[in-house]
Amino acid sequence: MIIAIDGPAGSGKSTVAKLVAKKLNYRYIDTGAMYRSVAWVAQKNGLNLADEIAMAKIAENLKIEFIPNANGQTVLVDGENATTDLKNEVVGKGAATVAAQESVRELLVARQRQIGETGNVVMDGRDIGTVVFPQSDKKFFFVADAEERGRRRYEELKSKNPELDLKIIIEEIRQRDYEDCNRKISPLVKAEDALEVDTTRLSIEEVTDQVLKNINNPT
Ligand code: C5P
Questions:
Q1: What's the gap in Å between 10 CA and the centre of ligand 1?
Q2: Angle between helices 89-98 and 31-44 (to 10 degrees)
Q3: Are 96 and 176 in contact (CB under 8 A)?
Q4: d(CA 19, CA 44)
Q5: Average model confidence (pLDDT) across the chain
C-alpha cells in the first residue's frame, strides 16, 4: 500500500503524513527533504544552484537516511544530522530551484520509486500522486489559505529565529507556490483521483482522522 499526500508548503502534509504512518505502522518518506538535501549540500559547498550538472551529481551521490524517532524523524545526509538545517527557509527556496531541474527530478523520483516498491509507505511531496506513484492506492491533496500556511510556518520557526517577520514568511510561501505551480516539469497539481482536503480551519487531529477514515472506509 502506498499513500500519497501532495500539496503546497505549509498545508500540513508532513505533520499529518507522519501521524498517519505512525498509526498504520508504515514508513514515512518526506520527499521534500530529498530536494532540500540537494540544496543544502550545494549551499554548504558554495555551489551555484542553477548549475544543473553539479546539482545532478549531488542528487546521484547523496546518501539520505530517514530514521524514525519520538518527534517524527531524523534526516541524515551523508551521515550528518541535517534535520534542523533542512527546515530553514533558505534551504526550502534552494530546494524549489533544484526541483525544477529535469535530471535532479529523474534521479530523486527513481529513488522514491525504489523506496515505494518495498510497500507500506506514506509519501508526501508535490508530485507523488501524479508522477512518482500515479497508481498509488490512496491519494490526498491538501490545500490551505496562504495566510494560514504562513502563520503555521512562522509558529514552527520563530522559536529558533525571533526576528522572523510573518509578512515576509507569507510572501515567501506565495513565491514558492508560484514556482512549484508554474515550473515546466512536474508542476504542483492535484491528481484527478486525489481527495482534496482543505486544512485551513481544521486541527492536525481532524485532518489525520479524515485521512485515516478515508483509508479505512473509502466512499
Ligand atoms: O515540502 P517541502 O517544503 O519540504 O519541499 C521543498 C521544495 O521541494 C518544494 O517547494 C518543491 O519545490 C520541491 N519538491 C518537489 N517535489 C516533491 C517534494 C518537494 O518539487 N515531491
A1: 11
A2: 100
A3: yes
A4: 31
A5: 95
List the domains of the chain with CATH numbers. 2-200 (3.40.50.300)
E strand map for the chain: 2-6, 27-30, 64-69, 72-77, 80-81, 121-125, 138-143, 195-198
Q: What pLDDT digit, counting tens, does each position of 160-213 carry?
A: 788 889 999 999 999 999 999 999 999 999 999 999 999 999 999 999 999 999
**Segment 72-102, tens digit of pLDDT:** 789 999 999 999 999 988 999 999 999 999 9
Which stretch of DSSP H or E encloses residue 151?
Answer: helix 146-157
Q: What's the grid cell of residue 183? A: 515550473
pLDDT tens digits, residue range 116-162?
999 899 999 999 999 999 999 899 999 999 999 999 999 988 887 88
Tell me which residue of 132, 139, 188 sits closest to 9, measured CA to CA: 188
Task: Please state, in angstroms and rounded to a whole number, the distance separating the CA atoms of residues 181 and 164.
Answer: 26
Q: Residue 32 Cα, ligand 1 centroid: separation in angstroms?
A: 4
* Residue 28 · residue 68 · CB < 8 Å: yes
Q: How far is CA 163 from CA 87, 88, 92, 168, in A?
A: 16, 14, 18, 11
Q: Which atom of ligand 1 is nearest to the CA of 92?
A: 6
- Tell me, in angstroms, the distance from the centre of ligand 1 to residue 152's CA: 17
Question: Which atom of ligand 1 lies closest to the CA of 179?
Answer: 12
